[in-house]
Design brief:
Blueprint: E1 5-11, E2 36-39, E3 45-48, H1 50-60, E4 80-86, H2 90-106, E5 112-115, E6 123-128, H3 130-136, E7 151-157, E8 163-171, H4 178-191, H5 219-229
Parallel strand pairs: 4-5, 4-6, 6-8
Antiparallel strand pairs: 1-7, 2-3, 7-8
Helix pairs in contact: 1-5, 2-4
């Protein structure tokens, strides 16, 4: 097996035993009669509802390109630094800043920020067309669906299930307007943090495979982000 595993997800067109140590207690669910009690590897009691657990599995343990189910979710364990390049307009940069701000309010262990030097980054976000993206990322030319995709990301993880880097592509010629671009930015950046699959339920979610517009994280997405990152 190679040292790094490359996980490729072509997004926006997308369509139980869960590692218990990734769950933390949700205060609002403690007194919920429909909640489910679990214990992590250290015996700490956690609480979450079955619907959220199932959705967490669907989004973090699966991906659209194959039927294999991972045993442990992948995530960043160090601070995330995002570098923007290509041909972004001002509102696109502002949208990334809004997404970063929202994520920092949800995630405790790591910080997410923008950097001006690509060498300092572990996530790159490219705005532009297919040809320009491939000229900067020739190794991805093998992915046939990139030309028609509205948004795409790829992540590289190590054997410890830690995401080391991600690349995000916002295919501007395939967008129908400003709202489409804003929605794709939030979806792709969030998924590049370890949410590799699109879901078939929760149409309010930014991970939903159907048509929707999400400009703020709904409650279900906040729960999933906390479950993955706030151990």
């Amino acid at each position: 097996m190679r040292k790094f595993l490359t996980i490729v997800i072509v997004c926006f067109f997308v369509t139980l035993t869960l590692p218990k140590k990734f769950f933390r207690e949700f205060d609002k669910l403690i007194n919920n009669p429909n909640s489910e009690n679990v214990a992590d590897d250290y015996g700490h009691k956690m609480v979450s509802d079955p619907e959220t657990l199932e959705y967490f599995e669907e989004i973090t343990l699966k991906n659209e390109l194959n039927s294999r189910v991972k045993k442990i979710p992948h995530k960043y364990k160090r601070d995330v630094k995002i570098y923007i390049y290509g041909d972004p307009e001002d509102y696109m940069v502002r949208e990334i800043m809004d997404v970063v701000s929202d994520l920092n309010e949800i995630i405790d262990p790591i910080n997410i920020s923008l950097v001006k030097d690509k060498r300092e980054s572990n996530i790159t976000v490219f705005f532009g067309g297919y040809n320009s993206f491939i000229s900067n990322n020739p190794d991805l030319s093998r992915i046939q669906t990139l030309k028609s995709c509205e948004g795409f990301f790829t992540c590289k993880s190590n054997k410890s299930n830690e995401i080391k880097s991600s690349r995000v592509f916002i295919n501007l010629p395939k967008q129908d307007g400003i709202d489409d671009v804003r929605d794709v930015i939030r979806e792709e950046i969030t998924q590049s943090l370890g949410f590799f699959n699109d879901g078939t339920t929760h149409p309010e979610s930014c991970f939903y495979e159907g048509q929707n517009k999400v400009f703020d994280y709904p409650e279900i997405d906040v729960k999933l982000i906390k479950m993955l990152y706030n151990e």
